[in-house]
Design brief:
The protein is built from two helices and five strands, in the order E-E-H-E-E-E-H. It is an alpha+beta fold and 95 residues long. The chain has two domains: 36 residues, no CATH class; 58 residues, no CATH class.
């Protein structure tokens, strides 16, 4: 896969989530060091119940301004309604 900055990278689905969410990208270290700069870090969580799953961004850390902000996310009640559960604490944790 060729990205717009003109270097090669390989994109592949995360095995743990069965390709249902997220994307892994493998980039050579020399390319990452010379072409990329870390500006934001997103803390996200994948919620799944039966056939329904969704990613929710819990928070975003701005590396340049050294500040953390809440993510653009669904409310807990909207998330539970979508997944058909009473509480997000009803879901098992997968590490």
């Amino acid at each position: 896969m060729l990205f717009k900055h003109g270097f090669e990278a390989v994109a592949y689905p995360p095995v743990k989530l069965g390709g249902q969410a997220g994307l892994n990208i493998a980039i050579r270290p020399d390319v990452a060091d010379s072409k990329l700069r870390l500006v934001k870090i997103a803390d996200q969580c994948y919620y799944k119940n039966a056939g329904h799953g969704t990613i929710r961004i819990e928070s975003i850390y701005d590396v340049i301004n050294q500040s953390e902000h809440p993510g653009l996310q669904q409310s807990d009640s909207d998330l539970c309604r979508y997944l058909g559960i009473q509480s997000i604490y009803d879901l098992p944790l997968i590490n």
